[in-house]
Automatic annotation (TrEMBL):
Pfam family, one: MR_MLE_N
Keywords: Isomerase, Magnesium, Metal-binding
Details of cofactor binding: Binds 1 Mg(2+) ion per subunit.
Catalytic residues (UniProt): 163 (proton acceptor), 268 (proton acceptor)
GO biological process: peptide metabolic process
Organism: Alkalicella caledoniensis
Alphabetical list of SMART domains matching this protein: MR_MLE (SM00922)
Protein's name according to its UniProt entry: Dipeptide epimerase
Requisite cofactors: Mg(2+)
Binding-site positions, Mg(2+): 192, 219, 244
Similarity remark: Belongs to the mandelate racemase/muconate lactonizing enzyme family.
Residue intervals of the Mandelate racemase/muconate lactonizing enzyme C-terminal domain: 142-240
Length: 368
């Protein structure tokens, strides 16, 4: 089996409401969908959701890189030769993980379809029966966030993830305290600053003030490159610490382990380059006795399901954020969310039927 053709579809996924985090606000989510064709008629779908602040790639640079550099190099290769494919992509361009993730995900989709197996069976088998997902709160006014959190709990969610990272630290403290009061003590509360508190002094100011709020963990409180700063924070707080933007690949993972900078890590396919490199991070975490979360860049059903298959197959992935499809008013395929649970199909590959009509309508021409 050989790759014969790769189609590129730049799209913008319509959000139900704007998604606001510490470093940006998104009225819709730009995404790049690819469709790999093979000589035996198998087709696989992949997705790239680059982010200048996280992956170092822009929407337009990723399209150009895929079209002019990466895709020509993978034509003629066997999708099952995933080690070779990643080696060739790495030799073609340094970094660019979100671009490589699109190829990786599509290859795994084809592998599953060719072997007539759901993707999770190729990467560990079914460990979990389903995935429990959190309700994610964008940054807003404390009262509004508290009301939304309370409503989510009433709708059956048992975990709430709170986006913070305001330069006004008092506002973040007010947000977190208000939400905890609104949802009660039993609901799992997770805080994500997305680097917004910048340095350890700011982070410790907030974290010392919310220690009584029964927080599951704090995610990426300070700048991504400051791994040692995370280690200093971890030594001074009782709240478990998770690193997200500070982790891309094995290099950062080794530094995190060696400096004891985190209790947990957040793996994102767009940060590390896809499922194959994500598995390496999972195994590194296992050796260091660290738990993992699989995060999302607010992706369509394609990349969300890729992350979900990974989460379902690995015992030390104890949390996931495959919430993208719930945030869109229109998606490319159907996913099986039942309340706060996501169930995966036993169908081959990613297990989702892509609506080609919706894909065509959302796609638009980009000159690169």
């Amino acid at each position: 089996m050989k790759i014969t053709k790769v189609d590129i579809y730049p799209i913008r996924l319509p959000l139900i409401k704007p998604f606001v985090i510490a470093y940006d606000s998104y009225p819709n989510m730009p995404s790049i969908i690819i469709k790999i064709h093979t000589d035996n008629g198998k087709v696989g779908y992949g997705e790239s959701v680059p982010d200048e602040h996280v992956t170092g790639e822009s929407f337009f640079s990723t399209i150009a890189l895929l079209k002019n550099n990466i895709i020509p190099k993978v034509i003629g290769l066997n999708p099952f030769d995933i080690e070779k494919i990643h080696q060739i992509m790495d030799k073609t361009v340094k970094n660019a993980p979100a671009a490589k993730a699109a190829i990786d995900i599509a290859c795994y989709d084809i592998m599953g379809k060719a072997s007539k197996q759901p993707l999770y069976n190729l990467i560990g088998g079914r460990y979990w029966d389903y995935l429990e997902i959190p309700h994610v709160l964008s940054i807003g006014e404390a009262k509004e966030m508290a009301c939304e959190a309370k409503k989510a709990v009433e709708n059956g969610f048992t975990t709430v993830k709170v986006k913070v990272g305001d330069s006004d630290l008092c506002k973040d403290i007010d947000r977190i305290v208000s939400i905890r009061q609104a949802v009660g003590r039993k609901i799992k509360l997770r805080i994500d600053a997305n680097q917004g508190w910048v340095n350890s002094a700011n982070a410790l100011t907030v974290l010392k003030d919310i220690e009584d709020c029964n927080i599951d963990w704090i995610e990426q409180p300070i700048l991504a490159d400051d791994i040692r700063g995370h280690a200093r924070i971890r030594q001074q707080i009782k709240i478990p610490l998770m690193i997200d933007e500070g982790l891309h690949g094995s290099k950062e993972m080794l530094e995190i382990i060696n400096t004891e900078a985190a209790d947990m890590i957040n793996i994102k396919l767009m940060k590390c380059g896809g499922i194959y490199p994500a598995l390496k991070l999972v195994h590194q975490a296992k050796m260091a006795n660290m738990y993992c979360q699989v995060g999302s860049m607010v992706e369509s059903c394609i990349a969300s399901l890729a992350g979900a298959h990974l989460s379902l197959a690995q015992s030390n992935i104890i949390s996931n954020e495959m919430v993208g499809p719930l945030m869109f008013s229109k998606d490319l395929g159907k996913t099986d969310y039942q309340g706060n649970k996501l169930y995966l199909s036993k169908s081959p590959g990613l297990g989702v039927e892509i609506n080609e009509e919706v894909l065509s309508k959302l796609a638009y021409d980009v000159v690169v």
